[in-house]
Write a structure and sequence with these properties.
Layout lengths: L2 E10 L2 E10 L10 E6 L11 E3 L1 H9 L3 E2 L1 H10 L17 H26 L9 H62 L1
Parallel strand pairs: 1-5
Antiparallel strand pairs: 1-2, 2-3, 3-4
């Protein structure tokens, strides 16, 4: 029978409380255990003496008969001086996975390609537009355009005359509205001096 020293969860939802128990390795986490040798309350401060309570003598006994502590319980046993814990070092823990490195590589290639394209565009002078054929076509259109422009100003001039007559009347109305407004502050100033 394989015996382990592990945590058994108690407490309520989002308020965990653990018992440090010695149990058969095949039994469920919160199930039947052989002996309770301590408690662990993760909600208390790290420097609190009530955070981890452990019966060191019983823990030594179970370790001597071959009980295997879990990683968390091994930390508690190391702090209590029962069993020295081997410090593990995983240098690959902080490295990104395969897919993340692939995505990072693709992003780097895209940014490099965009920078290269921008550098090429900046290095090449802007091509001057070659417009040799267009002026020939415009000259032919320019010869026809003055004849049309001569006829065109007569029609709009007839349309603009009524609008020009209405515009001065519209300008005079706001000026008439401003005059009483200018007189009103003066009347207020005279009323203040009298009172």
């Amino acid at each position: 029978m394989a015996v382990s020293i592990r945590l058994s969860r108690g407490g309520s939802k989002k308020r965990p409380y653990y018992r440090i128990v010695v149990a058969d390795a095949r039994s469920p986490r919160d199930g039947q255990f052989i002996e309770k040798i301590g408690t662990y309350n993760p909600l208390l401060a790290k420097d609190s003496p009530d955070r981890v309570k452990l019966d060191a003598e019983r823990a030594k006994h179970w370790v001597s008969v071959g009980a295997q502590p879990t990683d968390r319980v091994a930390r508690f046993l190391d702090a209590a001086g029962v069993k020295e814990r081997i410090v593990r070092n995983n240098p690959n823990k902080g490295k990104p996975g395969e897919k993340a490195t692939e995505r990072a590589g693709e992003r780097a290639e895209k940014t490099a390609a965009a920078e290269a394209a921008a550098a090429e565009a900046a290095a090449q002078p802007a091509p001057e537009p070659v417009v040799e054929e267009a002026p020939v076509v415009e000259e032919a259109a320019a010869v026809e355009a003055p004849a049309e422009e001569v006829a065109a100003p007569e029609a709009p001039a007839a349309v603009e005359e009524p609008a020009a007559v209405e515009a001065p009347a519209a300008v005079e109305e706001p000026a008439a509205a401003e005059a009483p407004a200018a007189e009103a502050p003066a009347a207020d100033a005279e009323a203040k001096t009298e009172g």
